[in-house]
Q: What sequence folds into this?
């Protein structure tokens, strides 16, 4: 996998993409990468045995999501079998069969915290409305929240 400028690898492992998330032409296990900018899964492309033997295996980047696109990472435990790493993104989810999925969840959360893009702070503006009322005895203006008229002392 080619790294982008300024990107570094945090964690890698052999993994299997869930069958319901696997595109046509992708077979077998691949490598799951967690970098400082994204989560990527690279798997061998299906080209045929003879071509694999003569030219070597071609790989294809099946999943590549930036860290800020990842909504949540959880562990799915079935009744039988091993737990799976499930990564939720805005338009769905992707599941990986990987060793130590709990460690991957922690690593993804840590990477999102540490390598999150800086957010620009927007200043908060608080507006107040001052309502003036007229005293019925002397006619002077005073604030609505005042209990007494500042001019004559009458109750408002």
A:
């Amino acid at each position: 996998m080619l790294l982008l400028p300024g990107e570094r690898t945090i964690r890698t492992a052999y993994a299997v993409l869930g069958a319901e998330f696997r595109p046509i032409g992708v077979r077998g296990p691949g490598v799951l990468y967690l970098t400082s900018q994204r989560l990527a899964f690279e798997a061998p492309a299906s080209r045929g045995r003879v071509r694999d033997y003569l030219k070597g295996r071609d790989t294809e980047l099946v999943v590549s999501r930036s860290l800020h696109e990842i909504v949540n990472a959880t562990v799915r435990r079935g009744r039988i079998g091993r737990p799976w790493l499930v990564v939720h993104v805005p338009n769905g989810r992707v599941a990986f069969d990987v060793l130590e999925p709990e460690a991957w969840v922690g690593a993804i959360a840590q990477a999102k915290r540490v390598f999150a893009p800086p957010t620009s702070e927007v200043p908060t503006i608080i507006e107040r409305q001052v309502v003036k009322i007229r005293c019925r005895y002397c006619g002077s203006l005073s604030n609505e929240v005042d209990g007494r008229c500042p001019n004559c002392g009458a109750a408002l």
About this structure: The beta strands are 9-17, 30-35, 38-44, 59-66, 72-76, 84-89, 92-98, 132-134, 141-143. The chain is about 15% helix and 35% strand.
